[in-house]
Amino acid sequence: MDKLIPGTNIKYSTSDDVFAVFRPLIELTGGLSLGQICSITGLQSSTIQNWVKRGYVQRPVRKKYSEKHLSRILLISALRDCINIEEIGEIMNLINGDTEDESDDIISDTKLYEYFALAIKNIDSLTLNDEDIETVINRLLENETHINELVYALKIMVYAYITGICFKKIDENLENLKTYRRK
Q: What's residue 1's pLDDT?
């Protein structure tokens, strides 16, 4: 089964540059429209607008969403199946503080999302264990400062994402069981 880039409807490419798919369009158009973000994520526009209104995502500039905006939206989208929005906001605040102020960021939202997406891509969920996850994350973060904070944040994100996938599989199988029992 091909893995999807977390928070999107798009399959991973062979490149380790997660934004290789999005970057040309962002650069060419000066940012993505809300409709484009919705197409990439499968989210409703009202959901994204609510996240902006509540301060979880920085306001778009002239109705255009940058790579930073997209990163934050993709992180929230990927984690929301298992972690409520307030907890996601708390994790993001612990790493990057206020969405409008980059001076308090430990790491950019884009880099954080790239590490998260690459960790998901490189972790074999069939042999999932804490040591393997930490090894993958430490390898990704080898040139970063604030390693401990980032390791904990990324481990939370990875486990939440995998748990969200499990919840979806539970729902699918429950529906299949109900359908089967009705026959």
A: 47
The 10s digit of each residue's pLDDT in 35-73 is: 999 999 999 999 999 999 999 999 999 999 999 999 999
User: What residues have CB less than 8 Å from 31, skipping those under 6 apart?
Assistant: 60, 61, 62, 64, 65, 66, 69
Q: How far apart are CA 135 and CA 72, in angstroms?
A: 24
Helix runs in the chain, H state only: 23-29, 34-41, 45-53, 67-79, 85-96, 109-122, 130-140, 147-182
Q: Does residue 180 carry a pLDDT above 80? A: no
**Structural domain boundaries in the chain:** 18-182
Decide if 150 contacts 109 (C-beta within 8 A).
no
Q: Give the count of beta carbons closer than 10 Å to the beta carbon of residue 22.
A: 21
The answer, yes or no, to whether residue 166 has pLDDT greater than 90, is no
pTM for the full predicted model: 0.83
Residue of 63, 74, 6, 75 lying closest to 29 (CA atoms):
63
What tokens were used for 24? 């040309």
Distances (CA, A) of 43 to 18, 141, 145: 19, 30, 33
CA distance 138 to 132: 10
- Do 168 and 81 meet the contact criterion of CB atoms below 8 Å apart? yes
